Each structure stands twice: as structure tokens, then as C-alpha cells.
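Appendix B, record 7
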Amino acid sequence: MICNRMVHVQVLEKGYDYEIFSVVALFYPKNEIVLSSSQPPDRFPGVFLLIKPVMSEGEKHIKVLLKAGSLSLESLVSCQETAAGDEFEKRKSIKMELKRQIYMLISKALERNLPWGVLTGIRPAKLVHEMLKEGKDREAVIEKLTGYYMVSGNKARLLYDTARAEEKVLRQAGEDLISIYIGIPFCPTRCLYCSFTSDPISKYPHLVDAYLDALKK
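C-alpha cells (predicted):
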């Protein structure tokens, strides 16, 4: 297993810093991650990840190169795959594919898979709701979660069951009702994919009463 104290990420393609950082942090939560547009020295001791726009067969791609010790892995992300969609959908698709490729390279280098796969910074059940609206059945939903998003089988089944349970509440919504999101910043543990403001409750038990008072107010 490759374990270095610093991860240096050279980003030469603008607009993807958050997605890049979030995936790298899944594998290196306790390491210093440096994002910059400058390449580290040739003998840089840590992990080096390069994100660079390139042309391949006349089309724009984003090159992902991972170097760690003597290991070197790379892949290409096409920027043309979703040309039929609008600009927002195109960018959304490229972001997800970039995350997938970074995840797969680091996963291969470390010989490690993560239970929530490539999911970061989102409510995972929301993806299931979208797939259910498309008419996908349980088998198709779980296959997409485990295949495309690389979620473990146990977590995929949990997501499906959670979304089905949420549907009972969502069906009660009407024109005279609104949904309010209330963030609970205390959890038993912190999920790797989570980007919300939250910490294990055992770390800040002294803040619970103050939070509840503020919530009631």
C-alpha cells in the first residue's frame, strides 16, 4: 500500500478543483493535500496527481495522471460525450467522469475500495429517487450504484431501502406544504462522502444543548 504524507495535485483545467479535492480526500483524509497550477520538483516524495487538458484524435480530453513512487497510472476523460445535452448537463457529466477516473486510479494504486464509492458531497438517496423516477427497478438501481458509482453492495441496498422509506413521506407533499432542511451537525460517525458541517457527537457533546436551544428558537 502506498502511503505518503503529502499529496500534490497539479490542476491545469479550471473549474474542477472541488470535485478533484473531494475524491482525493476520500483516500487521504489525514494527509496534506496541495492543489496548485505548478508542478512539484522531479523528486517530489509524495503522491502526484496531474489534471491536464489534452487533444486526442481531434477532440478535447482531460488527462488524469497519478504518480506515487515508481508507480505511474493515467486515463483520459472525454469532454465530448454529452454534446447532445445542455451546457449544465455536459459539465455535470464531465465532473462525474473525472471523479470516477481519479477514484479508479487511486483505488488501483492503493488496492483499496471505499464503501460509498465515488459519492461525495451529496445525499446518496437523492440519486436513487432520480433513478426511480426514470422507472428503474430495484435490480437496475443497485446495478447502477455498484457499477457506475462503485458503491459497495451493502451500501447500495441500504440506499435503495432508504429511498423507498422516504417515498412514504415525500408522497404527502402538496401545494400548500414546503420542505425545510434542518442540518444536524452531530453524527455517531462521519461518512466519507459527506461534505456537510458535521462531526461525531462524541467529539462535541458539550455543544448539543446549545444547538438544541438554537434550533427551538
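Remarks on this record: Residues 186-216 form one domain. The chain has three domains: 6-110, 124-170, 186-216.
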